[in-house]
Amino acid sequence: MGKHESVSVMGLHESVLCQEAVDGLSVKAQGIYVDGTLGRAGHSKAILRRCDDCFLYGIDKDPYALRDSCQILDKFTGRFKLLRGDFREMKSLLADEGVCKVDGILLDLGVSSPQFDDPDRGFSYHSEARLDMRMDLSQDLDAEEVINTYTQNQLQEIFSRYGEEPYSKTIAKAIVESRATKPLITTLDLVNLIRQTLPDRVLSQKGHPARRVFQALRIEVNGELEALKEILKEGPKLLKDGGRMVIITFHSLEDRMVKQAFQTCSKPETVDKRIPLRDSEMLQSGYRVVNRKPITASEAEIANNRRARSAKLRILEKKEV
Ligand SMILES: C[S@@+](CC[C@H](N)C(=O)[O-])C[C@H]1O[C@@H](n2cnc3c(N)ncnc32)[C@H](O)[C@@H]1O
Question: Do residues 249 and 109 touch, judged by C-beta distance below 8 A?
């Protein structure tokens, strides 16, 4: 199958921490909200339901997410607009719509169930597909290219950093040796190689042996950490006074980035301590971290949706002046 021929089916995505995310946004009348990770519009729908006259921009870089969400949000016609693009370009996507400030931004990071479940897209280690893993089908870099062209050191680094794979070096070495004879083209080529490489005692442990490598590849192919880094810098600047940014993460690296960025935003600007200033003259930070501890899913939600078990939700607010 060629790079641009992947087929998608309308699948369902069980939204994680949906109520908590919409509460966190504190949706208000006539507010303008941006869902930067539209997916199958679960959170978007809940935002539009919360208030009769708010407006929503839904962004996704996956064309199938936009196509399906347009149908899912059908009954809210006139109250939303869907934009194809990367949330790291949120500022310019909104500027093209004549919008420079919004009341709330939501990000629910990672992959959606329809992306994972569509066997042709190569996200899943359970079914045979070309090694693809692109959310944005117009981008060139895909998992096949990463696996067959990155150096051993580069592969080891991404498996270790993004996948926390303890056997990153062994697996990276095996990939480089194997591809010298024949390129690795499909998901199962990679899964079989990982199975042949890992010791039996690791293979007998709980969890799929290729899970960490697949997660790392997905993060690398889609530039997920770079996009998050950029939106953490630009997103808060897009908020109106009283506006909120809500981020749901599923990976400890991402949660750490969000926590640190929100803390930095909320720290007062430093001034030279030798300058005598009254309290009222001290520079105040323009933002407030709403929840010091991340909000996590209830046991009931986790029992219903295993994906929720690693979810962490954090909220930042632009202070009213
Ligand atoms: C976990 S799903 C979101 C599910 C959605 N909240 C729902 O309730 O249906 C993440 C979605 O964000 C998209 N996505 C991930 N990173 C993105 C980025 N940097 N820019 C735009 N879309 C992105 C993916 O294509 C996927 O559709």
Answer: yes
